[in-house]
Amino acid sequence: MAKKKVILSFPPRLIQEPVTNVLIRQFDLQITILRAQVRPRERGRMVVEMIGEKQNFDAAFKYLDDKGVQVDPVVQEMRYMPEKCVHCTACVAVCPTHALSVDPQTRELCFEPSKCIICESCIPACSYQAIESQF
User: Fold this and answer.
1) Fewer Cβ close by (within 10 Å): the C or N end of the chain?
2) Beta 44-52 vs 30-37: how paired, if at all?
3) What does the angle CA 5 – CA 40 – CA 19 come to, to the nearest 5 degrees?
């Protein structure tokens, strides 16, 4: 099994079509939507994690290309700068995936990048600019 995080950019004409359903049913992929922005008559954008067999990815990406869906690897990531952090934990309350947590023994902030969905909720919560989005 392989795992990939990708950004799917949909042209407005595909907003009403069940593209992710096809990826699940026809290509046997497990799809987790990490972040999505879909509005009528605008380009849609979803950050998804896909899990499945390599040959299924290849066929699914061909299907998406044929449909006009742009597929880009996730190259954005969140960067935590512990030297700026005062461990106030304001960011922990807004993190939906618990990528940011408090170590119960040291009472210091912990960041687990593998849990991060790049929602960027933590950025405005941090008064000390200890977290930033990085491309």
Assistant:
1) C
2) antiparallel
3) 40
